[in-house]
Design goal:
Layout (H helix, E strand, L loop, with lengths): L14 H12 L4 H5 L3 H13 L6 H12 L2 H10 L6
């Protein structure tokens, strides 16, 4: 049994909520990619969003929803530790 009253979230889990909200509301700017340290993917998404007049921003919306639907452990394992840049 743990001596702590509440389980401690894994390191990196604190970025999940902000990354998810940035993906949903500002996905076309790729702000969520830059927050997670995916600079190359962020530049690609930003350029494609500008070229398609924001239509590529739907990728950010989808990613934001995916971020928020994962548990803290899944989020950290996939996007922080595993460095999965897309979806």
């Amino acid at each position: 049994m743990s001596t702590e009253p509440f389980p401690v979230p894994p390191a990196g889990a604190e970025k999940k909520l902000l990354a998810g909200l940035l993906g949903i509301f500002l996905g076309w700017t790729a702000a969520h990619k830059f927050l997670l340290g995916y600079t190359k993917e962020g530049i690609i998404q930003l350029v494609l969003s500008l070229v398609t007049c924001g239509l590529f921003g739907v990728v950010g919306l989808i990613e934001g929803i995916l971020y928020l639907s994962k548990s803290d452990q899944e989020f950290v394992a996939t996007y922080i530790t595993g460095r999965k840049g897309w979806f």
